[in-house]
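User: Show me an example of a complex going from sequences to C-alpha cells.

Assistant: Sure. Here are the input components:
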Amino acid sequence: MASKIMGFWPIFSRLVRSSEREQSLDDELRSCIDIVAEEKIKAGIHRDEAYRQAKMEMAVEQTKTRVRSEARGSTPQALLRDCWHAVRLIRRNLIYVVTSILLISASIGLTCTAFAVFDALVLRKLPVPEPDQLVMVSGAIKTGRIPLTHSMFDALSSDRQGITQIFGFLGMGISGRTDGGASIFAVEEVVGDFFTAQGAVPELGRLFGQAERDMVAVISDKAWRTQFGADPSVLSRSITIGRAKIPIVGVTSPRFRGTEPYVDIDAFLPAGTVPDLRGAAAGSAMPLEVVVRLEHSVTPQNYLAHLQSIWPEVLDPKMTPERRASQPQVDPFNRGLSYVLQRQPGIRRATTMTLLLAVMIFAAACLTLALLAIARAAKQQRQIAIMLAIGGSRWQVLRPYFIESVAIACLGWGGGMLITLWWNQLAKGFLPSSSTINWHVSLDPRSAGVAAAMSAMIAVIAGLFTALLTIRTSVSDVLHLANPIASRNVRLRTLVLAAQFAISVVLLHYGLIYVGDLRSLTRIDLGFDPKNLHTYALTGKLPSRPVGMDYFQNLLAQVAAIPGVESAGLTSNDVPLSPATLQERSQPIVTDDGQTAKAGTVCVFPGYFNALKLPLLSGRDVLWTDGPVAVVTESLAKTLYSNSSAIAHRIQRTNGAPLEIVGVVGNITFNGQKLGAAPIMFIPCREQAQPWPSSYTVTILARSKRGLADVGKAVQTFVDAAAVHEIFSRSDEETIIASSLQLERMLATISGIFGTLIVILTAVGLYAFCNYVFASRTRELAIRAGLGASPAAMASGLLREIIVILASGSIAGLAMTLSSQRFLASLIVNGKNLDIHQMAIVIGITVTTTIAAVIVPTTRAVRMDIAKALRME
Amino acid sequence: VGIASRIHQITQSAIQVSFGSLFPALHRMEEKGWLLAEWRTSEHNRRAKYYALTKSGRKQLREEQRQWSLVVKALSTALQST
C-alpha cells in the first residue's frame, strides 16, 4: 500500500512544483510591471496610464502562455492544457471530427460484426479444456463418413491405447415435456466419458458417467432457465419422453454447450435407458458419433495408424457388407460436430468473404481518414509553423493533435461497439434459425479487443499524417507560400491524386455492383406465392406408431374447412426446402429414352401445389390413390425432354419402381440455389412409406388471411384430437420468405451495406483530397480574381487541369476493375458483372465529387478580398 | 526589465527584446539549468528576481558563441567574395 502511495509522489510533486512556478511567474511579472510603471511615472505619465501602458508592454497573458509552453516534460498541467487545446481543435473542426467519428464507428461496427460472426462460425473452438486433443472416430465408405454402432463403441472403449477418454452421443429431436408442461425437443443420448472428457461441471446436482444404468436426465442451463424458470428445486422434478417419466439429477454449467456448438440441447440422457427413444428401441443398431481424447504424446495420425491395425476386430458383424468394408477415419473435433454448419455449407464461405470485405472497407476508411487528416492539417499549417517558430517543440505542438486523434478514435470505438451490438442482432437474423439453433454471436472481449486495436491504428494513422505534414514545415515557407507541402512537389501531388482517382473508381465499381446485387435480390420470383401462407410442422408423439393415408386425408380436410382458410396442403419436408435437404434427397435418374439427370425428391400429399400456388403447367396433381407417379418441375422436364412433353414418360430412380410423370409444375427458387431453379420430382408420400410412421415429421400448409396463431389454434385442436402428432414449430409468410432467401439476403444485404459505405467513403476521401489540393491554391486564385479573372474562367482552368489527372486515374481504375472481374463475380450473388450503366454512374460520381471539391475553393477565392488573401489564407 | 534594458543599452539600441520573448527564453534557460534564479531586494528597495549563469550555462554560452562566430565568419566570407 505504502509503495502504491509513493508511486503517486512524483505526480503530486510535479503538481506542487508547477503551482509554485505559476506563483513565481505571477510575482515576477507583477514586479516587472511595477518597475516599468514606476519609470513611466517618473517620466511624468499619470499613474493609472503608466500601469496600463506597462501591462500592455508586458503582454501578461501571452507571456505567461509562452513561459508555460517552455516548461519541459509532460506535467499534468501540460496534459490538461493539451487536452483543452484538443477540445478547442475539436470545436473548431466539428465537421471533420463528426465525419471521422461516423466513419470510424461504421467501419469498426461493420468489421467487428463480421469478426464476431466469423469468430463464432469459423474460429471459436469448443469451450472445453484442450479441445485440440479431441478427435472424432468414424468409418469411411465410398459415399462418405458413417457413425459407429454401439458394439463398435464398446470395442473401442475396451482398447484405451493412445487415448485417455472416449464417449459417444446421438442427438435427436423428440417430442417431450417437462412436468410443468413445457416442450422439450432437443435431447442427446450419451455414453462413456461424455461429461468428464468435456470438462463439464454441474451447476446443480450431479452429472453421470459410464456406469450410469438408471433412467435419469441432466438438463442444460438454458433448459433450466427457460423451461423450468430457474427453479432451485428442479432436482425433484422430471421430464416426460414417451411413456417414461425421467427424474432430473443435474443441471450443466452455463459454459457447457455439449458436442454441437450451435444447437441448444435441452437434456442429456444415458444411452439406451429411455424405452421409447430410437437408440433404445433399435437396440445396438443405432449409430453413435464417437469422440476420443488423445494422450498428449499421441497425434491423430498415430491414433489412426493404431485404429487401422485393430479395425477388423472393431467392425460390427451385424453391419451391411458395404459398411463392413469401411476404413477408420479420424477427424478433428475441436470445433464440435457443427452439424448445422455442415447442412449450410455456404455459410462459412460467406462469413469468411464478409470478413475480408469488411477489412477492405476498414482499409478504405483508414485511407479516407488519413486524407481528411491531411486536409485538416493543411488548413492549420500556418498556425503550426508559427507555433514552431516561436520556440514550441514539434512534440509539444503535435500533442493536442494526437490527443484529438485519440479522442476521435475512442468515440469512434464507442460508436463502433454500439453499432456492433445492433448489427450482431441483425447478423443473427440473417443466419438460419430455429428454436434450438443458437449461433452464439456476441460482442465478446475478443471482438472488443479487435475494435480497440483498430481504433488505436486509426488514432496513430490520423496523428501520423498530421505529424508528417507538419514535421517539415518551416515558418518562412508558410509565410511565403499558401501551402508548401502541396507546392513542394507538383509531380508527386499529381501522382497521388491520380492514384486516389484510380482507387476510387475501383471501390465505386465494387460498391455499385453490391448495391445492384441487393436490388436484384429484392425482385426474385420464388416460384410460389408466400403471401398469407402459414406452415405448422408436426412431430410424432412417442412411442412412434404407423398411420394410414386416411389419417392425413382427414387432417387435411379438417384444416381446409377452418373458416378463412383458402387452401391447405401437406408435405413431409420443410417449407421451403433447405438446400441441404434437397442435396441429401438428390438422386440420379434415367428416363425411358436413356436421358440421365440428377433430381431432388420431395414427398407431398395431394393439394400441396394448390396450397403453395405453384402453377401446374401441364398434367395433374398427385392423388391419394396414386402409386409410383411423379410431378416434376419445369426445369427438370426441360432437361429430360427438351423437345417434347414430359407427361406419361417414365423415369427410373436408384431404388423403387419407375415413376410415371403425371404433371409438370413451375420452378421453385430455393435457398442457396444462386437464383437457379432446382430440378425436383415430387412423389406421393404414399409411395415413400405406407403405412406412415408417426415419428416422421410432416408440415401442414394453410393459406389464410387470418393470423398464424389464430389458424394455429384450430389446427392444434385437430392435431391434439388425433393424438398422433404435436405442433413443434410455426412459420408465417415473412419467415418463409426469409428462409427461402436466407443466404442470398444475408450476402446481398451485407453487400448493400458495404457498397453504400464504399461509395460514401470514396466520395468523402476524394472530396477531402481534392479540396486539400485545391484549397492550397486559394491565395493564387484570389489574386487572379483580384486581377480581373472571371470565376468561370478560373473554374474551367482548374477543371481542365484536373481532367487530365482524372482521365489517367479513371483509366487505371477501370483497368484494375476489369482485371479483377473474376474475383468480383465470385463475391456477388447474381453473377452479373459491371455494365456500361454502372461505369457511367462511377464516372458520374467521380466527376461530380471532383467538381464539388474544385468549386468550393474557387468560390471562396473569388469572394476573398485580395488584400486579405495576400496577408493570409 | 534590467536584462532587457541592458541588452538595449549595450547593443546601442540596435536590439530591443520584448518581454514576450525575454521571459520564455529566461524560463527555458532556467529549466535547462543554464540559469539560476533567486528573489532579492533591488537598490530601489523592490523585490526583484535575479538571474545568474550556472556552470553549465557558461559552458553553453561558450558553445553558442563558437557557433555564432562560425556563422558570422562564414557569412562574412560569403559576402566578401561577392
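The lines above are the inputs; the final block is the predicted structure for all two components together. Strands of chain B lie at 35-41, 47-53.
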